[in-house]
Amino acid sequence: MHLSSRQDYVSISFAGQGSGSYNNSKQWRRQSCWRKWKQLSRLQRSLILFILVLLFICGIASYPSVTEHLRGLTGGKQDTASDSILGPFVPFVLPEPAKQGPPPLPELTSQRKLSNKRGPPVLQNRLQKKGNASETVVEDRAADSKKEGEEKGVISWRGAVIDTDEATEGTKNGENKEDSPANQEVKTSKDLESSWLEAVREAFRHAWKGYKEFAWGHDELRPISKSYSEWFGLGLTLIDALDTMWILDLKEEFEEAKSWVATELTFNKNVDVNLFESTIRILGGLLSTYHLTGDTLFLDKAKDIGSRLMPAFNTPSKIPYSDVNIGKGIAHPPRWTSDSTVAEVTSIQLEFRELSRLTQEPQYQAAVAEVMKQVHKLDGKLDGLVPMFINTNNGQFTHQGIYTLGARADSYYEYLLKQWIQGGKKENQLLEDYLQAIEGVKKNLLQKSSPNGLTFVGELSHGQFSPKMDHLVCFLPGTLALGAHNGLPADHMDLAKELMETCYQMYIQMETGLSPEIVHFNMHQGSTRDIDVKLADRHNLLRPETVESLFYLHRLTKDHKYQDWGWEILQNFEKYTKVSSGGYTSINNVRDPEYPSPRDKMESFFLGETLKYFYLLFSNNTNLISLDQYVFNTEAHPLPIWPSTA
Ligand code: DMJ
To answer: Is residue 517 annotated as a catalytic residue, yes or no?
Structure first.
């Protein structure tokens, strides 16, 4: 009888149907199988044989990896390289915990995705526990990380996270304890310092690569379009970056830039430049490079640009115009007004004073001192706070009633303190104006946010308080700390720490971990988050102010948390602003990590300031541009504090 082919494949039904009685003897089973085999067609038999041979070959081929896998499961070491049976043990390193700072250096270039959960919920918990925001975050962060570590069997040393379970396996397996992976992983603070410094040097090299390739000798790199933009047509980025290269010990880059200055840079050009911007970036950059290198090339260039800027002071009031044609020697205000910006006319003093000291030509210092003298006496201040505009015809404040420490007023306050320091702390009027202004800030502009009580500096408009704070205001913690270091009231340092925390929160509460240009703080009870950002304010221009303040706070308190915060910020710049072909770009939207929307511009201050301050922040060498010997201009160019005999 022929069984249907369908039944051929179901032996149990075949067996059941055959005898009617179940017999499980070996002989019965052998006979039954043989009978079944014989009943198969030739094609069916060859197919089965073919499959069996195939299975056999596969079994042989997969034998090594199966055994390897089994070894892993049964406690053997898990090698990362396929051929590493005899290779070194590579410990398994846990990913960085969400809130901690510094992973090992290679992380910098990786495109690791950061958690989007930044700030508020964690911050809330922390701040609710203690009153002082500035003190609690890092303490609790350390505690959090310790707790997390205990649970997971990890240890954390300033962010280098090591799986202790895995690390001790080496000793379990008989490896020398001295060479155990745990010991290899734990870096000394020197190692960490070098790796962070090297990361900044690497970032600079990357930025320089783009500038050199696509914008050499021009003002700014446009890294996305691989082109450049001109502002004054004076190689602004190159000049702004000179002393940074010197400080970062980038000799090759410095030499090529220097040779451009020697052979290509000329100020005899029919161009309009902004007095303030060219003073702080070009004059300041050349003067500081002269001081650091002793090379008179830079002093000669500084004299040249300094003297070409002087026509700006030829105004009815002696309050300078905003713009000068450095080729024609003609200055003028902007087309739409005869006003200048208060911050601009009061933040050129460090540079012109220094130029006079070096050249022994008093006209530079006299011109800028006259501005300070007039501003000191002017009506229209509020408890030492100045309005944003000043008229070049009558020398009076205009658009009065608006007070801010942000755009158009910021560096007025910074330069009051810094001129006093530069001149050897003798010019009491400057100090008085500074101290009064800080009291004015405390009385009129300082508030706390809700729900977490972040201290912030808002604005005042005709008596109406606005909880708006520019990122530019983040220079203030550093300036306050510098003042306290120079003997000003200790509560300035307390305020510096509180504001530093706020500026850091402006970064980490954003989805990209980068601060927007402007934030608004919530002050109403019941608010769920401290910081709001308007659509138009979501850009980040690679600005330096927060990193600058982190540098001062770390240098003057020695608290390493500020370095950790800076490292976190540097990584976010790496992740969201780095352009692979070279350079870094400002971005439009710090709230969209998927598409931060590049603006295609690398501002000169990214090299002049931001990267320099990162480097100084990560260095533990207090003699590297000592704050007792140098004072930084508002573009991060260090100028010497005058010797007491000067
Ligand atoms: C720089 O040119 C200077 O730091 C200036 O004081 C403010 N603006 C930029 C950086 O943000």
So the answer is: yes
